C-alpha cells in the first residue's frame, strides 16, 4: 500500500468532555495534585485515538512520571513567588533570569520525555535536541523575529519546525524536513496582505459607523474634541470597545492562516529515513475559521464547549495529514525493533522527568 493515506481520529467530543469533567473535579478536590494524572488522561485520549494505517499510538507515561517533574516545578514557582516576603532586594529579578536560562533545558527535557513515551506498532519515538539548539531555535530566534517587526518571522518559523523535525526519531530512523525559505516568506506575505485587508475593512466599517451616528460629519468633518463627544454616545462607546475585539479576532484569523500555510510547507517537506513521506492539506481559511469560531463558541458557553473545540480542531488537522509508507512497511518496522527501539526496551528508561513551565 505505497500511496498517501490520511490519518484518522476516532475520539469523540462526548468522550473527551467526560474525561475533562472528571479531571477538573479531581484537580479541585486534590488542590491541584491530580494535574499530572489529568495530563496523562488527556494525552492518552488524543494519542490512542489517532490512527496511522489503522493502528493507534501508545502513550506510555504514567501520572506518577509526570508528578515528579510537576512537583519540582511547583516547588520552584512557590519559592519564586515567596521571595518578596524575604525582603532581599533584586532576588526575584535574579531568579527570573535564572528561570529564563533554564527554560531551553526544560523545553528540551519535556520534548524528549514525551517522544520517548510515545510509540506506534511497538516502536517508540525519541528526541535528541540540545540545550543550545532549543535556546536558539525555540526561544532566541522567535524573539528576534518579533523584534524585527515580523521581517524575520518566516526565518524563525522555518528554523523552529526544521529543528524539531531533524531531532525526532522513530526507532533508529531519523526525520528530516527542509522547506524552502522562499515558501515561508511567501506564506508571511500572504498573511500580511490578509492582515492589511481585514484591518482596512474594520477601519472602514468604524468610519461608516461614526458617520451613521451623526450624518452631518460627512459635510463638516469633526474636530478631535467633537469626535470624542460623538463617541461618548452609547453607540459610539460600543464601537470603541468593539474595535479591539475585532482586532484580536483578526490576530487569531491571521495566526491560524499563517500556521496552516507553514504547517503545509513543513509537513510536505518531511521525510522519515527509509522512504516514508508525509503530506498536509490544511486550508489556511479553514484553520483560521476553526480557531476564531472555537474561541467565540467557548466564550459564549462560558467554557463548556472547550472539549468540543479541541476535538474539532485536532480532528481537522488529523484528517488533513497524510502518510505514504514504504512498500515493505513491516520489514521497516522489524528493523527498528531489532535495533532496540521497541516498547519493551523503552519502558525501563523512558520515565525520567517532564519539566515544563
Offer a quick outline of the entry.
This protein has 13 helices and eleven strands. It is an alpha+beta fold and 357 residues long.
Characteristic terms for this protein:
globular; 13 helices; single chain; alpha+beta; 357 residues; eleven-stranded antiparallel sheet; 11 strands
Topology overview:
Elements: E1 5-6, E2 8-9, H1 13-29, H2 35-48, E3 50-52, E4 55-59, H3 63-86, H4 91-116, E5 118-120, E6 123-127, H5 131-147, H6 153-167, E7 168-170, E8 173-177, H7 181-213, H8 224-231, H9 234-269, E9 270-272, E10 276-280, H10 284-300, H11 306-319, E11 321-324, H12 329-338, H13 343-347
Antiparallel strand pairs: 1-11, 2-3, 3-4, 4-5, 5-6, 6-7, 7-8, 8-9, 9-10, 10-11
Helix pairs in contact: 1-2, 1-11, 2-3, 3-4, 4-5, 5-6, 6-7, 7-9, 9-10, 10-11
Account of the 3D structure:
The protein has 357 residues and is of the alpha+beta class. Among the domains are: 78-172 and 339-357, no CATH class; 182-282 and 320-335, no CATH class. The chain is 66% helix and 11% strand. The protein has 13 helices and eleven strands. It has an eleven-stranded antiparallel β-sheet with strand order 1-11-10-9-8-7-6-5-4-3-2. A hairpin with a 3-residue loop joins strand 9 and strand 10 (276-280). Helix 1 (13-29) runs antiparallel to helix 2 (35-48). The longest helix has 36 residues, at 234-269. The protein is globular. The protein starts with a strand and ends in a 10-residue tail after the last helix.
